[in-house]
Amino acid sequence: MNRHLLGPGDYAAFQKYLQGVCGIVLGNGKEYLVTSRLSGLMRTNGIASVGELLKQVVAGRNQKLQVSVIDAMTTNETFWFRDMPHFQLLTDLIFPEIESKPGRAMRIWSAACSSGQESYNISMTVQKYLSTNPGRLSGGVEILGTDISNRILEEAKKGVYCGLSASRGLAAEQRDRYFIPRDDCLEVRPEIRRRVSFRNQNRVYAETCG
Ligand SMILES: C[S@@+](CC[C@H](N)C(=O)[O-])C[C@H]1O[C@@H](n2cnc3c(N)ncnc32)[C@H](O)[C@@H]1O
Question: Model confidence over 1-19: pLDDT tens digits?
Fold first, then answer.
């Protein structure tokens, strides 16, 4: 661990700052996490300690630095169909309920969407529902994915997944139905993408890192 990056009191001040700015709760004893995630950024910006970094971001003079700190501190764990019961609930309860209000557009918010798997999975669930219930959800479905991290949102917008992020949680049948193979990667099909948009939004909620 790079101890000199964290002066006395720096960790507590950083915990307070991060929770205040985006709701991320850093537990006690996670100094290693802060130093490992921020050391590259500090080196690039010629900043010697977390205290100094904090001074610059709190003063609000360097918005780019603030965005980079948040990007570095978010934990973007996600995979395909991560919370299966939620998608099942859409098919079993929510879509049939909306059908009883014909012509009304359905708008779904995928808050803290990370690299987009959850948002695209909602669209895939819609697609499957429509294949067995043609003509339903006649008002259309719009899915908005939001996250605080610009870095991860860029990945979500691309809709191209490689390596582990292409395979984790995905069955072969889902891969063939919803993706176009691109070299060693998978691209989300246009009919799935067209319902989904992404934008940056700070939801300020509690997340435990690490
Ligand atoms: C563990 S991922 C969850 C991804 C997805 N919802 C899933 O369940 O697979 C948590 C995401 O929350 C985002 N996040 C953390 N604090 C946030 C905030 N205040 N506003 C918006 N997004 C935030 C992180 O950038 C990260 O991508």
Answer: 455 678 878 899 999 999 9
> What long-range pairs does 96-103 form, CB within 8 A, spacing at least 24?
98/137, 98/139, 99/133, 99/136, 99/137, 101/139, 102/138, 102/139, 103/138, 103/139
Closest listed residue to residue 76, CA positions, set 37, 35, 121: 37
Residue type for position 207 = E
Asked whether the beta carbons of 10 and 38 are under 8 A apart, the reply is no
Ligand 1 proximity of 152 Cβ (cutoff 6 Å): yes
Q: What distance in Å separates the CA atoms of residue 191 and residue 4, rounded to the nearest whole number?
A: 51
Q: Read out DSSP for 6-37?
A: S-TTHHHHHHHHHHHHH-EEPPTT-HHHHHHH
User: What CA–CA distance (Å, rounded) separates 194 from 142?
Assistant: 9
Distance 204 CA to ligand 1 centre (A): 10
Q: Nearest residue CA, atom 12 of ligand 1?
A: 112
What does the pLDDT read at residue 104? Answer: 78
Question: Amino acid identity of 76?
Answer: N
pTM: 0.90
